[in-house]
Automatic annotation (TrEMBL):
<dbReference type="InterPro" id="IPR033116">
    <property type="entry name" value="TRYPSIN_SER"/>
</dbReference>
<protein>
    <recommendedName>
        <fullName>trypsin</fullName>
        <ecNumber>3.4.21.4</ecNumber>
    </recommendedName>
</protein>
<dbReference type="InterPro" id="IPR001254">
    <property type="entry name" value="Trypsin_dom"/>
</dbReference>
<dbReference type="InterPro" id="IPR018114">
    <property type="entry name" value="TRYPSIN_HIS"/>
</dbReference>
<keyword id="KW-0720">Serine protease</keyword>
<dbReference type="GO" id="GO:0005615">
    <property type="term" value="C:extracellular space"/>
</dbReference>
<dbReference type="GO" id="GO:0004252">
    <property type="term" value="F:serine-type endopeptidase activity"/>
</dbReference>
<dbReference type="InterPro" id="IPR050127">
    <property type="entry name" value="Serine_Proteases_S1"/>
</dbReference>
<dbReference type="InterPro" id="IPR043504">
    <property type="entry name" value="Peptidase_S1_PA_chymotrypsin"/>
</dbReference>
<feature type="domain" description="Peptidase S1">
    <location>
        <begin position="18"/>
        <end position="242"/>
    </location>
</feature>
<keyword id="KW-1015">Disulfide bond</keyword>
<dbReference type="GO" id="GO:0006508">
    <property type="term" value="P:proteolysis"/>
</dbReference>
<keyword id="KW-0378">Hydrolase</keyword>
<dbReference type="InterPro" id="IPR009003">
    <property type="entry name" value="Peptidase_S1_PA"/>
</dbReference>
<keyword id="KW-0645">Protease</keyword>
<dbReference type="Pfam" id="PF00089">
    <property type="entry name" value="Trypsin"/>
</dbReference>
<dbReference type="InterPro" id="IPR001314">
    <property type="entry name" value="Peptidase_S1A"/>
</dbReference>
Amino acid sequence: TIEVLEFLLLIGSLQQRIIGGQEVEPYSIKYQASLQYNNQHYCGGTLIHPQWVVSAAHCWKPNYVIKVVLSEHDLFKKEGVEQVFNVSKTIVYYLYNYRTFDNDLMLLKLEKPANLNSNVQPVKLPGPDTPPTYGGMFCAVSGWGVTQVYSYSLSPVLRAVDVQIISNCQYYYFYRITDNMVCAGSPMGGKDSCQGDSGGPLVCNGYFEGIVSWGIGCANPYFPGVYTKVRNYIRWINWIIDTNRD
């Protein structure tokens, strides 16, 4: 029934979606952000501008309780190079639907610009001339999410996994995939984002193409991970940045 499916979708989103990946070279994913509440990581994010981070709308909390951490590798070690920011604004996309997860993105404005250095750089946004993604294309997803399907423990260190774009995603999700979503996973299962990765980046060919959004379970060949399709929102993102320069 629709009610059962909606419950499954909700559970999938709470399983906030790295299974099958490996620890990255520290600070090599220079755009990766950690969203933290009470000094604990709860969602990922992506630096797109010295003062702006993109995450999933379902990661929303009041801006005054969120800290954004850049140049983070081990969540449980003070490494001395972290940049920690208060958030002055959270702007959820105005058509976000919390039932279907359509338009699942938000922008966070940092209280001050990040110090761009060898560890911290914004990701490249796709432009009108960036070739589209295609089925079978390899992309990287990164985060501090759980590393085993039935675990509730976050990874202490940043991890990444290569996943493939899955083009016929409607087949898996009963026509719940909108034009604002893109699916990625492994045809054999075993590779996916999972709890604690939500809001983090899916990067294809060096371009920021997806935001970890939802799915049913993790690393299941029958249910690939579902990502917000970033290229549909470039004009909105640029407009928000341009109109919030105060």
